[in-house]
Amino acid sequence: MQSVDDFLRHLGLERSVRPMDLLEEQFYAYAAEELRKDKCSPGLMAKAFSEAEGDEKKADALYIKLRVIQLKAAFERVQRSPIEEDASKAEAVSEPIYIPSGAASSQRGEDLFMVFVGIAGLIVLALMIAIASQL
Fold first, then answer.
1. How confident is the model at residue 59 (pLDDT cuts 50, 70, 90)?
2. How confident is the model at residue 105, as a pLDDT?
3. How many CB atoms lie within 10 A of CB 36?
4. SS3 of 101, please?
5. Residues 6+ apart with CB under 8 A from 119
6. Cα 78 from Cα 120, distance rounded (Å)
7. How far apart are CA 61 and CA 69, in angstroms?
8. How far is CA 40 from the centre of its chain?
9. What's the N-to-C CA distance of the chain in angstroms?
10. Backbone angles phi, psi at 6, to 5 degrees
11. pTM score, two decimals?
12. What are phi and psi of 15, to 5 degrees?
């Protein structure tokens, strides 16, 4: 299972003893950089564009906001230990994971994907153990 430090390193971010608001600022910077490099998720950008009713500047701002929400959720999933969660909490962790379209072919994107595959495997294992212990 990947550590929180490894997760942040995959995003090109660093961890220190920081309050969450500083980490959130790094997530905003990461999302803005995705936008600047035109490496946005097509689906997420389409959602932002739709909600901004075609206004490109508003869509860009909304994309950053939505992407930060995704990054925070992914960070929280990596931070939690799925084995310690009960089955109801584990189900919430299994929602779809976004991988930036340009990163899917890159090593960084593949590594991130493998992290989430590993987490999903641990969740399934935890559920199997919980079910077996009830039999």
1. very high
2. 46
3. 10
4. helix
5. 1, 2, 77, 78, 82, 93
6. 11
7. 13
8. 14
9. 28
10. -65, -40
11. 0.50
12. -115, 135
